[in-house]
Amino acid sequence: MARVDVVMPQMGESIAEGTLSKWLKKVGDVVKRDEPIFEISTDKVDAEIPALSAGTLAEILVLEGQTVPVSTVVARLETEVGAVVAAPAVATPATAVAASHPAAVRAGPPAVSGLVPAGHAGNGTSLEDRLRTKSSPLVRKIAAEHGIELRALRGTGLAGRVTKRDIVGLIESGAAAVPGASMYAPVGVEPAAVQVDAWPGDVIEPMSKMRKLTSDHMVAARRHAAHVTSFFEIDLTRVARLRQKARADFEKQAGQKLTYLPFIIRVVVGALRQHPVLNAAHTGSQLIYRKQYNVGIAVALEWGLIVPVIRHAEDLTLAGITRAVNDLADRARTKRLKPEEVQGATFTITNPGVFGSIAGTPIIPAGTSAILGLGAIEKRPKVVTGADGDDVIAIRTCAYFSLSFDHRIVDGSDADKFLATVKKGLESYPETEL
Predict the structure, then answer these.
(1) How far is the C-alpha of 425 from the C-alpha of 265, rounded, in Å?
(2) Number of neighbouring beta carbons within 10 Å of residue 158
(3) pLDDT digits 0-9 by tens, 70-113
(4) What tens digit of pLDDT does each residue of 25-51 get?
(5) How far is CA 88 from the centre of its chain?
(6) 411 is catalytic
């Protein structure tokens, strides 16, 4: 028999650590090769991690809830000699630290609260400097927008790495916005927050890793953009009729359920081409007009919210979009998404209408200029002009679409023109595109 190390995988180039959220096996359990053995959470995605070798789970070294650097040994399998599959080597600074400081690995990241000054920033070539400045893209983006020098700070992550919680806390404390003030919070001091006390009979439970990440993302995104929301009522009667007409043949040929969403995505991408500022990003004093149309689709899970991305949606047919939507949603619910599949959205669509919501004002994801919310699709009495020119009351299939946009980038007229284009595209959807 031989023992095989099970390690924390690197789930993306910029990710240096992960939280072991749940063990799917216990000590003594038999594990098949490629069978999920534990779940992890990172600042990008939740995922199930499969075993690289078959065997018996002999030892668990990292407990649920612990956050450890990439390549940390989290467990060991006992397996037959010759059945070992070597794990891919990950050459990252975190690996070097894990190897040289095993005690720190077992204990997780340093238990330091708040940002502290890094002292001498160095020339950026030391291991600590490289780790500290190798924060996630979101942290670097937030820091750049607020004029914060990451190298001058020491965070709570590995080797002083600044995390999202650190940078958001720093900004919320107001220290980063005060000229001449120190850009860090004293050790052990958390930013001021509303204190809420539990009452007798209340149930208290810790926030999940995913809920904490969602909270951080939403707070940062809400602060990042100047939010304004515009609403249009759109008549989807034509789409409903085309969908009903083509549904049986489409589902037989494509093997996919045909919903309203692919029609909407198809029209939205066309509207983004005509109104490029809605597919843009803001950085400092510059605008970046994206030439890729990567549409994020918000998926509600039992344990939180995730936004997988349909890349190059402009190249996909209605059938291709349908397959992409169904595949991403299915893998999101079964925790099989890859980190790169939840990154790089240039525009986002959220669909609270499936739960009965008529309309909403969604928060714009950081790094984009707008998000489209879809209200419940329902039949309503509407005044329409008949064939003889008289106004009549007819039953129409309608929904409210809400567009939250960043007013720093997008003017109200641009947002309304975009929605008008979407409205026209859906109300006159060409049958030839089925």
Answers:
(1) 11
(2) 27
(3) 889 999 999 875 554 444 433 333 333 233 333 333 333 333 33
(4) 999 999 998 889 999 887 667 788 888
(5) 26
(6) yes
For residue 35, count CB atoms less than 10 angstroms from its CB and return exposed for 0-12, middle for 13-18, buried for 19 or more. Answer: middle
| SS3 call for 262 | helix
User: Per the residue annotation, which of 29, 34, 330, 411 is the catalytic one?
Assistant: 411
* H or E element that contains 74: strand 73-79
Listed by start position, the domains of the chain span 2-107, 116-194+207-211, 226-433
**Closest-CA residue to 13 (of 84, 86, 73, 94):** 94
Q: How far is CA 74 from the centre of its chain?
A: 25
**Candidates 29, 312, 315, 407; catalytic one:** 407
> Does the active-site annotation cover 407?
yes
Q: Alpha carbon 411 to chain centroid distance? A: 26
The reply to whether 2-107 and 226-433 are identical in fold is no
Q: List the CATH code of the domain at 226-433.
A: 3.30.559.10
The residue type at 341: E
- Which residue reads 């612990």 in tokens? 66
Q: Which fold has domain 2-107?
A: OB fold (Dihydrolipoamide Acetyltransferase, E2P) (2.40.50)
Of 94, 35, 39, nearest to 64 (Cα)? 39
